[in-house]
């Protein structure tokens, strides 16, 4: 409970108006605190548009588990739009206004998704509209994403990132655990008492309220001037014309420039292995719990909250450990645990679910307590500051597209098997169980590659 108490104290500290770290009119300390609050709100919103909630919405509208997997993988499919972001935001000194507007529009699309059962239930238009909404908000998220990431990184000194992002994640998990306990039980009650349509209307209302608070918090974050390369100003019309031509011809070179750095190449490979692994099986976990194991939201939420509380305690501890021994050891250990987690999912069926699931959720909590902030910290250290937005856009595009392709392969496998199963050593594996086992194998490869980088010279992993 000491860990929980510590995080609750940090929540009170978030909204303090005091700031002893003001430089050039930028309130760095307060801005970082407000980013913690914004992250807690956006994490709660993200929970409502993914996992079991989106799987239940798709099933209610007549969709399949394969469709749920594809919907959850659309964020990866839409990452090529980040190449546009490189040109739109790559030379901008200020990005806040555009990021805030994009975030507000995206959250309205979240609300619209859960209004579909009330407006289009039984209509053939429901699933296409859901697909369009998911595609639209992911396109916008990916367009503004690199600029948003760069904004956050500019506010956090490199020496403090591991601990800061671990603490930020801890605060988000505390808020999320309380929110999920309330939301899960109310949604189950609404489904049982008034029907699923009203349950989805309640989710839409929750998203609307959380979004209003989230956007307000985001507007309170100051934005320092980013240290990025800019096009030199031409002094004559001839220079302007020549400069524009050179700029257009150099766009491809601009996109390829990040890969000149060994650190960027190696971090991209690591990110690809991680993305391909998690995107192969991750999008199907919610559908497996709801459809195959037929678990109630209350049970899923109870296990999720238990997992979150464990992460609340372990995430700040992981941040302290990473600050002392480095991000790579924590990342390697965490990735290996998550790989084992997915392999165990392959052996989880209705008959043993109530035994296996508590083990799975606790074991995953230990792994996920150290993976998010270490991957972020490792990734940002590999990117040259002068081209950071471009590097984020290009690498995320490559990683995202390959991640989506891995989901398509998994979806094709599920569709191909069409509910069939295979028996190995007396144990029966259905389509999704096979997908989960393959996921575990790929994530073990990611952990192995991270170990290779940890033992390699520093120039292979840091810009």
Polypeptide structure, described:
With 463 residues, the protein is mostly helical. The protein has one domain: Up-down Bundle (Growth Hormone, Chain: A), CATH 1.20.1250.20. The protein is built from 20 helices and four strands. The strands form two sheets. It has a two-stranded antiparallel ribbon. Strands 3-4 form a two-stranded antiparallel sheet. A hairpin with a 2-residue loop joins strand 3 and strand 4. It starts with a helix and ends in an 8-residue tail after the last helix. About 3% of the residues have low confidence.
Topology overview:
Layout: H1 2-14, E1 22-23, E2 26-27, H2 28-48, H3 51-60, H4 65-77, H5 82-89, H6 96-113, H7 116-120, H8 126-155, H9 161-194, H10 196-219, H11 237-249, H12 251-256, H13 262-281, H14 285-292, H15 297-325, H16 327-345, H17 353-368, H18 372-381, H19 388-417, E3 421-424, E4 427-430, H20 431-455
Antiparallel strand pairs: 1-2, 3-4
Oligomer: single chain
Morphology: globular
Strand content: under 5%
User: Can you write the helix and strand succession as a string?
Assistant: HEEHHHHHHHHHHHHHHHHHHEEH
Number of strands: 4
Describe what is shown at a glance:
By secondary structure, the chain is mainly alpha-helical. The protein has helices spanning 2-14, 28-48, 51-60, 65-77, 82-89, 96-113, 116-120, 126-155, 161-194, 196-219, 237-249, 251-256, 262-281, 285-292, 297-325, 327-345, 353-368, 372-381, 388-417, 431-455; strands at residues 22-23, 26-27, 421-424, 427-430. The chain has a two-stranded antiparallel ribbon. Strands 3-4 form a two-stranded antiparallel sheet.
């Amino acid at each position: 409970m000491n860990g929980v108490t510590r995080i609750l104290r940090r929540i009170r500290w978030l909204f303090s108006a005091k700031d002893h770290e003001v430089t050039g009119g930028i309130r760095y300390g307060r801005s970082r605190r407000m980013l913690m609050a914004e992250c807690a709100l956006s994490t709660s919103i993200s929970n409502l548009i993914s996992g079991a909630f989106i799987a239940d919405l798709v099933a209610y509208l007549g969709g399949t588990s394969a469709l749920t997997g594809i919907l959850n993988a659309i964020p990866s499919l839409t990452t090529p739009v980040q190449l546009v972001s490189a040109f739109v935001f790559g030379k901008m000194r200020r990005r806040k206004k555009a990021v805030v507007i994009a975030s507000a529009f995206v959250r309205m699309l979240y609300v619209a998704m859960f209004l579909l059962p009330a407006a289009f239930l039984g209509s053939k238009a429901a699933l296409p509209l859901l697909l369009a909404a998911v595609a639209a908000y992911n396109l916008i998220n990916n367009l503004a994403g690199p600029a948003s990431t760069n904004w956050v990184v500019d506010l956090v000194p490199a020496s403090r990132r591991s601990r800061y992002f671990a603490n930020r994640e801890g605060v988000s998990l505390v808020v999320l655990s309380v929110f999920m306990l309330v939301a899960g039980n109310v949604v189950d009650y609404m489904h049982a008492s008034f029907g699923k349509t009203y349950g989805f209307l309640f989710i839409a209302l929750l998203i609307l309220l959380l979004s209003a608070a989230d956007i307000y918090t985001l507007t309170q974050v100051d934005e320092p001037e980013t240290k990025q390369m800019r096009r030199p100003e031409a002094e004559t019309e001839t220079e302007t014309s020549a400069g524009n031509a050179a700029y257009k011809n150099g766009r491809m070179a601009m996109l390829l420039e990040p890969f000149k750095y060994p650190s960027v190449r190696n971090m991209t490979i690591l990110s690809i292995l991680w993305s391909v692994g998690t995107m192969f099986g991750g999008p199907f976990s919610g559908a497996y719990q709801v459809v195959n194991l037929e678990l109630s939201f209350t049970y899923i939420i109870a296990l999720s909250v238990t997992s979150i509380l464990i992460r609340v305690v372990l995430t700040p501890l992981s941040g302290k450990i990473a600050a002392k021994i480095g991000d790579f050891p924590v990342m390697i250990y965490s990735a290996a645990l998550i790989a084992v987690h997915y392999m165990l999912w392959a052996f989880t069926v209705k008959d043993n679910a109530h035994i296996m699931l508590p083990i799975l959720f606790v074991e995953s909590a230990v792994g996920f307590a150290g993976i998010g902030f270490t991957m972020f910290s490792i990734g940002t250290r590999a990117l040259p500051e002068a081209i950071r937005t471009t590097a984020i856009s290009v690498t995320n595009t490559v990683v995202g597209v390959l991640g989506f392709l891995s989901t398509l392969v998994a979806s094709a496998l599920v569709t191909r098997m069409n509910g069939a199963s295979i028996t190995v050593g007396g144990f029966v594996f259905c389509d999704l169980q096979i997908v989960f086992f393959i996921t575990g194998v790929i994530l073990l490869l990611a952990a192995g590659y991270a170990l290779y980088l940890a033992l390699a010279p520093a120039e292979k992993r840091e810009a």
